[in-house]
Amino acid sequence: DHCRERMPSVRFGRVHVFNNYYSCANNNYCVRTRLYAQVLVENNYFLGVQNPWERLTTSAGGDPGLLKATGNVTNNCTWSDTWYPGVTLIPGTDTLPELNPPPYTYTLSPVADVPYFIQTYAGSGKYPYAP
What we know:
By secondary structure, this protein is mainly β. The protein has one helix at 114-121; strands at residues 9-10, 14-18, 21-22, 31-33, 38-42, 45-47, 53-56, 66-70, 73-75, 87-88. It is globular.
């Protein structure tokens, strides 16, 4: 609740965002790629948010960030490229040289189950997590 943006915003990094639940109405954006970044957005559930993912470019130049989005749900989301200068809406189809595949093993939960697992097991006092 009450998150507006930067969930995350990535510059100069390699980030894998997976199995998250975003339901923060009245936000600006959830995941943003920026200068020299590579962001893999995988099996996340976005509910009623603005710009589940976007790219920001500025007058500073440099390589724009890359983003690949796969297996996500965007339920009742809105998309806007006019809320802030330099925002570009992107389909999330970039090739990620350093995250294809990520250099570690991981297990994705089915995206339909993500809201349940997050709301049931994530946060203070909700240990242990048991899938």
